[in-house]
UniProtKB/TrEMBL annotation:
<keyword id="KW-0460">Magnesium</keyword>
<dbReference type="GO" id="GO:0046872">
    <property type="term" value="F:metal ion binding"/>
</dbReference>
<keyword id="KW-0418">Kinase</keyword>
<dbReference type="GO" id="GO:0005737">
    <property type="term" value="C:cytoplasm"/>
</dbReference>
<feature type="binding site">
    <location>
        <position position="86"/>
    </location>
    <ligand>
        <name>ATP</name>
    </ligand>
</feature>
<dbReference type="InterPro" id="IPR036850">
    <property type="entry name" value="NDK-like_dom_sf"/>
</dbReference>
<dbReference type="InterPro" id="IPR034907">
    <property type="entry name" value="NDK-like_dom"/>
</dbReference>
<feature type="binding site">
    <location>
        <position position="92"/>
    </location>
    <ligand>
        <name>ATP</name>
    </ligand>
</feature>
<dbReference type="GO" id="GO:0006183">
    <property type="term" value="P:GTP biosynthetic process"/>
</dbReference>
<keyword id="KW-0597">Phosphoprotein</keyword>
<comment type="similarity">
    <text>Belongs to the NDK family.</text>
</comment>
<feature type="binding site">
    <location>
        <position position="58"/>
    </location>
    <ligand>
        <name>ATP</name>
    </ligand>
</feature>
<dbReference type="GO" id="GO:0004550">
    <property type="term" value="F:nucleoside diphosphate kinase activity"/>
</dbReference>
<dbReference type="GO" id="GO:0006228">
    <property type="term" value="P:UTP biosynthetic process"/>
</dbReference>
<keyword id="KW-0546">Nucleotide metabolism</keyword>
<dbReference type="GO" id="GO:0006241">
    <property type="term" value="P:CTP biosynthetic process"/>
</dbReference>
<dbReference type="InterPro" id="IPR023005">
    <property type="entry name" value="Nucleoside_diP_kinase_AS"/>
</dbReference>
């Protein structure tokens, strides 16, 4: 099923100049970027985005980290892409993430794991709406779709 996922390169990915490297992985896989923007997240938006973790001991550190420098927020479209992107991202703790995953190849600490990706269709819908207006999401066809999809 065609899905959209919310993906965000966290401040460490931006500051470590890993944006192109990570975007290339998604593009080379055949996924389609339909929205991308660099932005500073307000404390309010950070708390809303990570609302499910508000009682956790790491919540305050997470909010300060995510608001410390710009992020690259994006919407990616593709067949079953929500779970696919989670697999490409790897485990939350980069030390446990498989090699070949984004976190497994480029990160070491849970609190500096460089990327966020939606974990379900419901969270994708919620997170896309938090970060993007409908008018910021681009609908277009890729010329090689018949080579990527059966
Ligand atoms: O979805 P994912 O990012 O893989 O992990 P979550 O369990 O949703 O946690 C969100 C975010 O919080 C995680 O990417 C890093 C941070 N975090 C942390 O700093 N310490 C933990 N023990 C768990 C999560
Ligand atoms: Mg999560």
């Amino acid at each position: 099923m065609m899905e959209r996922s919310f993906v965000m390169l966290k401040p460490d990915a931006v500051l470590r100049r890993l944006m192109g490297t990570v975007l290339t992985r998604f593009e080379e896989r055949g996924l389609k970027l339909v929205a991308v923007k660099m932005m500073n997240i307000s404390e309010e938006l950070a708390k809303e985005h990570y609302g499910e973790h508000k009682e956790k001991p790491f919540f305050n550190d997470l909010v300060s980290y995510i608001t410390s420098a710009p992020v690259l927020a994006m919407v990616i479209e593709g067949d079953d892409c929500i779970s696919l992107i989670r697999k490409m991202v790897g485990a939350t703790n980069p030390k446990e993430a498989d090699l070949g995953t984004i976190r497994g190849d480029y990160a070491l600490d849970t609190g500096r794991n460089i990327i966020h990706a939606s974990d379900s269709p419901a969270s994708a819908k919620r997170e896309i709406a938090l970060f993007f207006n409908d008018s910021e999401i681009n609908e277009y066809a890729l010329p090689d779709e018949s080579l990527i999809y059966e």
